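YM 10:42: Vacuolar import/degradation Vid27 C-terminal domain-containing protein sequence, as discussed on the call
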Amino acid sequence: MGTAQSREDRITDSESDEGYEEEEEEEEEQYDDALSDHQNTQSSSSTSTSSGGNTPKAKWVISEKLTSYSFTKENGDNDENCWVLEVGTKVRVRVSTEMQLKMFGDQKRVDFVDKAVWALKFLSDEEYRNFVTQFQNCLFENVYGMEASEENKVKVYGKEFIGWMKPEVADDSMWEDADDLSSGSIPVKGNRELMEEFEEAANGGVQSLALGALDNSFLVNDLGVQVYRNFNRGIHGKGICVKFDAGGSRIGGSPSSSTPKKALLMRAERNMMLMSPENEGKPNATGLKQVDIETGKIVTEWKFEKDGADITMRDITNDTKGSQLDPSESTFLGLDDNRLCQWDMRDRKGMVQNIATSGSPVLHWSQGHQFSRGTNFQCFASTGDGSIVVGSLDGKIRLYSKTSMRQAKTAFPGLGAPITHVDVTYDGKWVLGTTDTYLVLICTLFTDKDGKTKTGFSGRMGNKIPAPRLLKLTPLDSHLAGNNNKFHGGHFSWVTENGKQERHLVATVGKFSVIWDFQQVKNSAHECYRNQQGLKSCYCYKIVLKDESIVESRFMHDNFAVSNSPEAPLVVATPMKVSSISLSGRG
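YM 10:58: structure's back
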């Protein structure tokens, strides 16, 4: 990423980058020259090939004025047959989402990444569409290990999800009917945005970010918990650090455990739960420690136990989107590979356990389910009313009502990539899943047999399920983000009040924080979606670029959105620094 320093600590717009538009115009001229040289050629697999460089200001260079492509099957890393795309003598790449293939139907062109950014321009619309169809069929087979037939697609997606395998026949009415931004909000589109940024040292080794909706927010690093004061323009360090025990006992599951990777605020944000992995490389923990933020002391070391046996948890979260504000909160949710449950810090009689008399107290498994078969849960989140969304290794996203954790009300099929993080809006109408190479945005709304509009958390969605939308980086930005950098931590902006709508989405990849306008993504007439085949993909976003890999990017609570602003400040944490960025709606 050293080549991208010209964009360091700036916010760029994927829609209005003038340099990129100029390059596209020059590139069109280059393509026209190439095509005029070969206007009589009728080869069914002829294209012109251009390659891009490794910097934001790189120019397109004609690689081959006339070339050919082919999809061939070859043995992969695990001796499995997989489809490979070959273009002339320059490109040979496994067909996958890591190519970040982007379609330009009006230009009969596709761009993709393979060690550099490549563009293919086709001689006819038919040839372009044939290529896209072949690519999508090969991608399906590489992902699912079966031919992309109608029968196999039904096997993978299910009859109810016809819109997922045939987006052109999907019912998009729910996207259109969904509530727009509240009347008092300021849309980002059409406003000149002023990004104000300041940053502070974070004392190194930042592992996680815990934003508060009240007075304070927190960074967990190798030394302890750093305390920050919340303001309308961001967070400022208070110079206070709750240090970990110096005697070798770290906050987490055991004396030998690593630095906490998960911090959860509770009880009106006066307490914090800290959870450490039991073994390096795996997130699962055997317990957690409860810290009193006001005194800076560990008040309880909790163990996870069920039916007398020690168990692990890979993640914890609050019962609802706003329950961390409840001063009497005594329960929270837990997730493991095959477990979904609620933990209660009170004993079975409802009494708060006393650490002085109980030794190492055991959390009470108040409700939940231990699944016998491999669900491979990875991540979860809760809505404003306590409904739960769970993401899995196989890409499935399950919706559970607040009254039952035993069986999902709705299970969305996977698109082939594991879900590494999941979030949901306060009202439960929208779910955001994070994969390594894209985000998937799902509308949970449906109309029941009585004509009432409900969410998939409260009932089975039937056969008119809206197709999801994908949020992706352009091939150039994906290339600049780095080969080994993956999307992580996709979040909606943060509201905890009925009637308020989240306005932005943010995710992190490498040194980039990527921000999408939620209303723009929901708009079916958005220009990104024109001339696309397959699921609609949105490429319009803003990038905040830092000088080191970003640990986490989160919007502050809606309480801290100033007047005439489209959003509360964005907080970006790197291992060494924490930055606050304000989005101004001034015209």
